[in-house]
Amino acid sequence: MAFDNDIINTRALVVDSNATSRSVLIAQLREFGVGTVRHTARLKDAREILENENFDIVLCDYHFENSETTGQDLLDELRREGLLPYPTVFVMVTGEASYAKVVEAAETALDSYLIKPYTGTALHERLNEARRRKRVLKPIFLAIEANDFQTAASLCTKRFLAREEYWLYAARVGAELCLRLNQTANARLLYEAVVKSRALPWARLGVARAQAAAGELVPARRTLAALINDLPDHADAYDVLGGVQVDQGELAAALETYRQSARLTPDSVNRLQQAGMLAFYGGERAEAMRLLDQASALGSRSKMLDTMVLMQLALLKFDTRDGKGLQQVNTQLQRRLERTPNDVRTQRFARVTEALVWLNEHRSEDATRSARAISDEVDAPDFDLDAACAVVALWVRLAGLKLTIEEIVSPVRRIAQRFCISHAASEMLVACASGQSEAVEAIRQSHAAVSAAAEKAMGHALKGDPRRAVESLLDEGEQSHNAKLIELAGLVAQRHRERIDGVDRLTARVADLRLRYCANADAARQSSRRAPGGLRLRA
């Protein structure tokens, strides 16, 4: 059975809990000439291996004994987190009972599948065909690896329009590239063309993602509602819907959506942490503790675990007077910091957690000194919304010490002036200040002040003085570093460009502020988004 000439240089991973099946697959791969074959019996181990190593071939069983998690769950997680490079061939091995689910997966990120019992010839044919597709589409993959996304998107679109070999796969990759390039209209055209021809679930989901990316949140919700109605077990659809609900400030509704997503995939680190973090902000502390503990345990050695999970767990452990648990979380954060010593975000979480440990040990002066030092960094460009939430929560827990109300409220107010960029962001800060009414009021007043500044500026624009509107927004933005006001200044300047004298000087000020203070605000809004339902553009 001839294979391509490069088979001797390939690396394969076999994931199967059955020792006999695993041995058969390993022997067959070696018979085909595969150069290196690794294997594991556990999905958790497979996830960690694939986080740190690249493989040309992955053979994974669908069913795992004594586990609710399936090979499909692993594939979804790897795809969602961008841990499968495009050249990797992923083949699912399944029995008749799970055939329908695997065939549906084959239309998304799966390269092929095998139905048990299968022959060596069948496996050979599946691998050969999958590897051939990778070779045919190699120019696209090479462009992606070179970060030339525009060329890759053009190649995909050309193949799709000409209905050349593998045009459907090219359409999906091209649509993902268009979303990355912020070409939402082109992405939507590709997705809608696939829907029209075959109405595949991933294409319908892609339409919703393109709508959401273009700010068309109401149409996106309609598209998602229809998809969920037809496919109530489509976990990715819940992920996208939850993201839209967060964007609209509906945190309670988003929590319920992510609960459903987590129930559908109980061993998904990302979905557990999404639901857990929203439960934390929603005041559902017992549920948050349970979900975040699960996510922490599952993702203890995984890059998928957001360190904000550990930060929130530290706060929950402190509030329940679980000193031992708090110290364990602190140790986890320190270990994570050892692996990524230059990660400023993790550094801040570790410092806040350490302050909580000191507070628990009645070292109040040390804890207060640390809170002040971190608060002094609020104007740093890399200070993000998650850090803001963590510091607000720390100050609230310092309120029982010999500090004046103003000493507590002043840093909270400064943080709120910068990070009240949306209703959702403000409510997250309010949730972290829960229990300290003066701090909550300071956040709400800051949110109102930001909204008032925006309305006042727009009033100038409506009265025919767009220059004054832009200058007003920039003055406020330079003082508060609030991303909402800075972005609005840019929008007004762009819209009324022909009517503003010295517009280039104003847009240069906008660009400078955007570079320093808007990138992290966007990252904060998207920190828990993992392109659900999409192919991640990892080289």
Task: Characterise the protein shown here.
The chain is mainly α. Among the domains are: 5-134, Response regulator (Rossmann fold), CATH 3.40.50.2300; 137-223, Tetratricopeptide repeat domain (Serine Threonine Protein Phosphatase 5, Tetratricopeptide repeat, Alpha Horseshoe); 383-539, no CATH class. It is built from 27 helices and 5 strands. It has a 5-stranded parallel β-sheet, sandwiched between helices. Residues 522-530 have low confidence and may be disordered.
Distance between the termini: 31 Å
Which oligomerization state do the chains in this entry correspond to?
A: single chain
Determine the fraction of residues in helical runs and give it as a percent range: 55-70%
Q: What is the overall shape?
A: globular
Brief summary of the model shown:
This protein is mainly alpha-helical and about 550 residues long. The chain has helices at about 20-30, 45-50, 70-80, 100-105, 120-135, 140-145, 150-160, 165-180, 185-200, 200-215, 215-230, 235-245, 250-265, 270-280, 285-300, 305-320, 325-340, 345-360, 365-375, 385-395, 405-420, 425-430, 435-460, 465-480, 485-495, 505-515, 520-525; strands at about 10-15, 35-40, 55-60, 90-95, 110-115.
What are the defining features of this structure?
Rossmann fold, five-stranded parallel beta sheet, mainly alpha, 27 helices, globular
Compile the SSE list and pairings.
Elements lengths: L10 E5 L3 H14 L3 E5 L2 H10 L4 E5 L9 H10 L8 E6 L4 H8 L5 E4 L4 H17 L1 H8 L3 H13 L5 H14 L3 H15 L2 H13 L3 H14 L4 H13 L3 H14 L4 H13 L3 H14 L8 H13 L3 H17 L4 H17 L3 H12 L9 H13 L7 H15 L3 H10 L4 H26 L3 H15 L2 H13 L7 H15 L1 H8 L13
Parallel strand pairs: 1-2, 1-3, 3-4, 4-5
